[in-house]
Every structure is written in structure tokens, then in C-alpha cells.
Task: structure prediction
Amino acid sequence: MRIDIMTLFPDAVEAMMGQSIIGRAQAKGCVSIVTHQIRDYTTNKQMQVDDYPYGGGRGAVMQADPLYRCWAHICEEAGERVHTIFLSPCGRTFTQQVARELHESYDRLILVCGHYEGVDQRFIDECVDEELSLGDFVLTGGEIPAMAVADCLCRMVPGVLPEESCYTEESHWDGLLEYPQYSRPEVWHDRAVPQVLLSGHHENVADWRKKESYKRTMERRPDLFAKFDESRLTTRRERRVLAQAKEEFALERAKETER
Result:
């Protein structure tokens, strides 16, 4: 997968995307994240990319032309129009499901990072295929959302993580939150690791993790659990684990109410 990021701060993006798992994946050639300095595509000596908004108001708006020139250069280099995403608080919320859709549909993307008071709508109308938001809040620029989207997508590319289960067993992949994790020592501050995780019984460990995943989702994200399709549980064992999770969750809630 290749992701081209249009930004005013390429050094910041490269510094982050060149580290850890994603940095190693780029070194191996599994993924490629290429930044493009929007200022390089201006036609004035000042390398100006913004101007006052028509109609008045505070701040400045990123101009359509340097954005278009940068975008057109990337598409020309690719030999085709590349699916383009503008990171914007006005877009649909980015979720793991959206990430899966993008991963399955495209092997190359352009991510556009806005700044100031926004981007000239004409560029969006002509060049942007969709807008994505990290949530109902506003950031200074689009670099943080772009890096979050790139990181999430790259994790699903074969060869980036050791195994597919490294991301399919994490929160949100199947509509649930991930189970609690523990490491050494066995006892820390008088808190012990659950005995089942020390048992060496792989099926019991798997059942416990799934049960705790259900319970954590019921407690912290009831909206997610309400969407969980129980009909997908095809075995008696799977249905039993879900029933145990519901029973334990109800008992724990009852105890909290009594306190």
C-alpha cells in the first residue's frame, strides 16, 4: 500500500511515520508513506498557500490552486486519479470498519491535511472523494488525523505485523472491545493475574478472553454491544461463553448497585 500525504508539515509526519512498526514496514517495502509539501506547488515567491476568506471572517483559507497542483502531480505520477481523502471535522467518523473498507478497496490513497480556517470548497468539490473525521472535535491541522488513518491502514497490510491475529483480535475489529492484558510479575501491588491465564489450558484461556471482551464492551460501550449480532455464534461453546458473560456482568452490576 502507498499513502501520499499532502501537508504543510512533512517533517513532522515523516518523523512519526518513520518510527516503530510503521517505520520498519516502510524499510521492508511493505508500505510506502510519501509526504508532499504543499508550498512547493505555489506560483508566488512567498510560497503563500492561504488568503482571506470571501465574505469576511477570522483567519485565512487554504487556496485551491496550490492544493490542486500538488494533487495533480501525485495523480500524474500514479498514472491515474487516486482516491483522495480530506481530513475534516465535517467528514464521516473514521472507524475500524471504515479502515477495513479502505484497505480492501484501495492500494493507494491521497490524504489531504487542512489548516487555518479550512480549505477552499472548490478544491474539495473537484478533487476530494470523501472526508473523514476522527471524532466530534477540532484539531489545529490535519496531520494528526492523517497519521492516525495511515497507521491504522498500514497495520492491516500483510507483512507489517507478524500475524493477522495481531489486529483481528484487537478492539473494534469484530465490534467488541479487546479483553484485559497481563504480563509479569504474577502479583503486583497485591493484584494477581487471573488464574486461568496461568493454567496453560488454551481453550479455557480463549473462552475467558472472549467472555471478558463481551463484559468490557457491555460496560464501557453498550452502544457497540447493542449492535453485536449474536446469530453469528454458531457453536454451543460460543453461545455458552456469551451467556456466562451476560450473567457475570449482571451480577457485578447488582453488587455495585447495592454498595
Q: What stands out?
A: The chain is about 45% helix and 15% strand. Residues 236-258 form the longest helix (23 residues). The first strand starts at residue 2 and ends at 7.
